[in-house]
Amino acid sequence: MTTRDTARSQSASQAAQAPHAASVAGTVGATSANATAADDDIEILDIARKEDTDERRGRRWFKRFSGRPFPGWLYAFLFILFDLAAVATLQWGVSLKSTRVKLSSPTVGWGFVTKMWTDGNFVLVLNALLLGLIYLILLMLTNRFWIATPVFLAAAIIVAVIEHFKVQIRYEAVLPSDLNFLKADKSNLLSFMPPGAHWTIIGACAVFVGVLIVCFLLYRMDGRSGRLLRFDNVGLNVTVRLLLILLPGMFFTLYSMQVSTVGSWAKTFATVMGDKPSMWDSVYDAQRNGPLVSFTRQLNPRIMEKPANYSEATMKKLAAKYAKEATTINELRSANMTDSTVIYVLSESFSDPSRVPGLKVNKDSMPNIRKIKSGTTSGLMLSSGYGGGTANLEYMGLTGMSMANFDSSLSSPYQQLVPSEHWVPTINQMWGAAKFSEAFHPYESSMYSRATNYVKFGFSHFYTLTGDGEGNDIIKYQDKIDESPYVSDEATYKSALEEIAKTDDNQFIQIITMQNHMPYNDWYKDNDFTAESTDPSQPLEKDETKSIETYQKGASLTDEATAAFLEELDKLDKPVTVVFYGDHLPGIYETASADTNNSLALHLTDYFIWSNEASSSQGEKIDNAAYSSPNFFVAQAAEHMDAKVSPYLAFLTEMHAKISAMEPPVVNTIQGWDRIPEGQNIYLDADGNPMAESDFDDETKQLLADYKLIQYDITAGKNYLKDSGFMDLP
What we know:
Region (Disordered): 1-23
Shape: globular
Transmembrane segments: 73-94, 120-138, 145-162, 197-219, 240-257
Protein name: LTA synthase family protein
Pfam family, one: Sulfatase
Strand order of the largest sheet: 5-4-6-1-8-9-3-10
Keywords: Membrane, Transmembrane, Transmembrane helix
């Protein structure tokens, strides 16, 4: 075989072997590919098995608990825990400290936890009980613990945020009257959002999400899924749930309806638990007693007893009677009250220290006012308060109504009555449009709910330190004297004088000063006033002496500022009449107040009615002025000005002729807001002597009965007098 043949044979052999090699290679490649795919499947299977194992582990973790229904004691513990969480949430809503209101502090509210064992005060428990009743009702409505709980806490968070916003904007807690606002002005709710409100809302939402997560986790752990009642008998299940809805609901309703009524079981219960009403400041009240306790106390105040003969026919007859009396009075008068500017000055705590029993002072604190009183209508005013109660005197002065006619449960009309009234006739309304009524008070506008009440009274401006919350109506002059924390009377008068002088219109002006407000802590430099006991065997304590001497200096500064104010009013070329009065004595006379025989002396302040040179009544002195109370001031001012009267003012004129002054029972302690003190109403005759109702003649008894009819109709009745012309001047 040749070499060429050999090569050909090898080539053929290789060609013949190529398909086999390709087949083997293909087999090997396929085997390798199959092996790789198998490995991938195994890996996927392993991962799936791992995930399945993890899921089973998770299930087993939950099943450790979900297979075991929560015991009753655990539900009870969680109920109390979430209930207290709601209390804390609401408390946060009002825990915003004001830089202006010195009497308020958020620590007061949080302190009610510790005061359970330090003071025996259980107002925390009372709040928890009331909220717990609401919580229980929700639980029974749903029969699902893990549904009712987030709903309950969500409601608490929402209310707390609303409280927080209102306190931040207006320094006022949520009041029952706000429910009327929601009905009437829903569209303006967004305007009450303070700056940065979105952060508060985001925070609240975050907290609620946290609540949902906790509730969901506990739900997954709970073998009974939060189902509280699991009776096999459907009828028994429904019956128990209805009972646990109705009974707590009845208790809460009855408590809310009666807690503001003196002598009721609810009032007694709340007092025993530690409720201490602080009606002058709604935020402080909510901080001190809890928002829910404070709120329910104002839901249904008992205003006054309905007169037996109250009816539309009776009120029409009464209106006609005093319309006739007004006609008789007006035949002898020539002026119109609204042809003058009338200024009411409520001088905080102003009174004469030299009249305090057992007290000796080195010099007169009010020589200027004493001189003014000697030349015009003036006298002593019977006050319902001692050391407090300003708003009640203010209310009587503006309305002509008497605290003596109200039920003892109504301790603060500004808080308990005015916000819910549909008709609030006040004397400034005689001047017509709101633009003719302005008020000045150099302090927090929300105190005693004045900010909202003065709008309701018909005042166009209420100038205060805080204004209307939008930068308007800020009182212009805010000067203080030495170390005193309060705006001086001189500055307050200056602010008012500028507004009065800038218009030729006749107005009604209300001024409420603050300079002499408690405390009296040696504020003034170069104070040369001294005070001591008239009985050497009973010397004054050091703190009492310091307070009295500080107060004396403050009263003397008021005396000077008031005289200067009247001098400026004399320069105006329009008639002006001023009604000036001290609302109550300062609560600093510990020695004198210890003797109950001093009660009347410690409830008499100074007042005068003065007219400027542009008035025809300057220097006028009316009869029966030696003693009065603020409800009679408007009738006395009309007589002083020789002004014609409405049927209402005619009635007050007749009433004052028979009873010079009237107030509810008084005590020698700083005004409290729990109730009007127990005892008999105080009635003084023209000489300042107390009178007993049993000794009244028939005419006086009838006038007093008419007074109660009038006051009931306006404050608690059907307002039959509203369209009768009873309040209209001729």
